[in-house]
Amino acid sequence: MTEPNHINAGRRGLLIAGALSATAVAVPGVAGAAEAANTATAAGQAGQAPPVLMKVSLDINGQRHSLDIDTRTSLLDALREQLHLTGTKKGCDHGQCGACTVMLDGQRINSCLTLAVMHDGAKVTTIEGLGTPEKLHPMQAAFIAHDGFQCGYCTPGQICSAVAALGEIRQGIPSHVSADLNARPQVTPEELRERMSGNICRCGAYSNIIEAITEVAGRPA
């Protein structure tokens, strides 16, 4: 009766490891090779790959940062864990909630869905780069004035997305609900709701958020 493949594979791995260990005892010079082989075998059996580091340069909120970073690291994790910019929140980590929204070269992006190494030389603006408690960005001030948040967890992503959405409207970029794709889009509740639909507020402050964005849109750019 033929044995299952995984049993054969396990038996081969055991025999190889045993042979390497025996060779290492008999020939001291190959001890390092045997140890490396055993480590690689263990990592392979655990389904893990050793990290690959790459040097990346990012302009974060106007300041240049040079990072040696695991190629598997998302932009979100690089911002939070290596640069300690924790204003950008990790919500779903699947690009569905918008809590991690930042602006990359002027365009909004879900930072959980992109790798940091893909953006060498890019300019990133997070909520920390928009304003400070002493000098709020107009959108931050409007969110406060219109009570556009409750728990506040989604707020950094909401504000970054709102700033970028108004930028899209100023550039004449239409949305799915734009009546005329050849005309400059207008700042209407329908336009704003469509453009902000990727940012979820579990507290349900949507109407206040639209009011805050509308106020900022009415000011001179």
Report on this structure.
This protein is an alpha+beta fold. The protein has helices at 5-26, 31-45, 75-82, 127-130, 138-145, 155-170, 189-195, 206-217; strands spanning 53-60, 63-70, 101-104, 107-110, 123-125. It has a five-stranded mixed sheet with strand order 2-1-5-3-4, sandwiched between helices. The relative contact order is 0.10.
Structural class: alpha+beta
Helix content, binned percent: 40-55%
Poorly predicted runs: 20-31
Terminus-to-terminus distance? 78 Å
Radius of gyration: 25 Å
The helix-strand sequence is HHEEHEEEHHHHH
Strand order of the largest sheet: 2-1-5-3-4
Q: What is the 3D form?
A: globular
Oligomer: single chain
Strand residues, percent: 5-15%
- Number of continuous helical runs: 8
Please tally the β strands and state the result: 5
Biggest sheet statistics = 5 strands, mixed
Write down the overall mean pLDDT: 86
Summarize the structure.
The chain has helices at residues 5-26, 31-45, 75-82, 127-130, 138-145, 155-170, 189-195, 206-217; strands spanning 53-60, 63-70, 101-104, 107-110, 123-125. With 221 residues, it is an alpha+beta fold. The N and C termini lie far apart (78 Å).
Topology, please?
Layout: H1 5-26, H2 31-45, E1 53-60, E2 63-70, H3 75-82, E3 101-104, E4 107-110, E5 123-125, H4 127-130, H5 138-145, H6 155-170, H7 189-195, H8 206-217
Parallel strand pairs: 1-5
Antiparallel strand pairs: 1-2, 3-4, 3-5
Helix pairs in contact: 1-2, 5-8
Key attributes of the depicted protein:
221 residues; alpha+beta; 12% strand; five-stranded mixed beta sheet
